[in-house]
Amino acid sequence: MVANLSMINGEAEMMYTGERPWHGLGVALDKPATAEEAIAAAHLGWLVETAPVAAKIGDTIVDCPGARATYRADNNSILGVVGDRYTPVQNTEAFQFFDGVVGEGAAIYHTAGALRGGALVWILAKLPGEIRIKKTDDITEKFLLLCNSHNATTRLIMCFTPIRVVCQNTLIAGLGVGEDKVAILHTASVHEKAENAARRLIEKTTKYYETFEEQANFLAENDFLSKEVDEYLDTMFPSDETTGEYSGRTKNTRDKIKELLESSTNSMEGIKGSYWSLYNSVAEWVDHHRTSRGQIEDPSIRLQSIWLGSSAALKNKAFKQALVLANS
Q1: Which of 213, 244, 259 is the last residue of a domain?
Q2: Residue where a domain terminates, one of 147, 180, 213
Q3: How do residues 278-292 score in pLDDT, each as one tens digit?
């Protein structure tokens, strides 16, 4: 297994179309894929089954009531241990939610794949149109993301995922427009709930991206004062409450973000010195420079964090705080 991307018989369980993703994972398709083509190209057509769990206590095998193991039916590899109410959502079923609500030809299935032997799968759909900030070359593309775990570590999740083209930052922004994210437990009603929730989500796509474009342009139209950079960073990466000093790691983070603020991607004509560039400096640091215990994380772990974990929460906070300061 390379970089936690699932590898079966020497082949990566992932596909992508267009430019190679920043994380460097996957196998290229020459043309946009339907969900069916994405599943085939990413080798995700396998089924997930469940089986009873037992424990060995001394020399005795004891059944574990209320627990079941999920496993891949193609190779019998264990994916996780779940409760007895857990209902698997097969990869083909999860991807079909997007076919049903987006419509054939209305989206490009941009990437799809599996991590950690198939414990987590995803499909990323690129929607028509783009957001051009202040009529500049700063372009953000519109995506919908579906992630599904087969070990109960995450719910079945669908959400909006804008991506800034110039540096492939994932611009997580919970805008409070109805349901910005769908998260459904793997119970007996998961299929019906997922289909209905996906339809509600797609109905909100236009409103979400209209609001995102409006707020992004608002940030780009408002410049910050030099002192407000530190004020902004203090809300994101504060000093120690006891000593009032910045830790070495916090100081390095702040310095790197200030460096990124002056980079070509964040100081291009039309956005330089704006809250939009300030927010994107944080987003760029999170996506490409954030470390764990001083080490750059495995690309697949970083990817999951950007979409679903602490990195997503940090960027959402950064976006909202930029709006607060721009409005003040």
Answers
A1: 213
A2: 213
A3: 999 999 999 888 876
Contact 145, 161 (CB under 8 A): yes
d(CA 258, CA 273): 11
β-strands 108-115, 27-29: how paired?
unpaired
User: What torsion do the CA atoms of 266, 272, 276, 281 make, to the nearest 10 degrees?
Assistant: 30
What kind and span of H or E run contains 160? strand 156-160
Q: Cβ(39)–Cβ(112) under 8 Å?
A: yes
Name the region of 176 (left: φ>0; alpha: ψ -120 to 50; beta: rest).
left
Please give the angle made by the CA atoms of 313, 93 and 78, to the nearest 5 degrees.
Answer: 75
Residue 242 shares a structural domain with residue 175: no
Same domain, 13 and 133: yes
Mark out the alpha helices in the chain (DSSP H runs): 35-41, 91-102, 190-203, 205-221, 226-236, 248-261, 275-288, 299-308, 310-327
Q: What radius of gyration do the chain's Cα atoms show?
A: 21
Per-residue pLDDT tens digits for 149-194: 999 988 888 888 999 988 888 898 877 655 577 888 898 888 888 8
Contacts of 60 (CB under 8 A, 6+ apart): none
Geometric angle at alpha carbon 156, from 147 and 3, rounded to 5°: 30
Residues 13 and 95 in one domain: yes
Instruction: Count how many domains the chain has.
Output: 2
pTM: 0.86
The answer to whether the Cα torsion of 30, 31, 37, 42 is positive or negative is positive
289 and 241 together in one domain? yes
Host domain of residue 120:
7-46+86-213
Residue 62 lies in a domain: no
Which among 308, 273, 249, 289 is positioned nearest to 124, based on CA atoms? 308
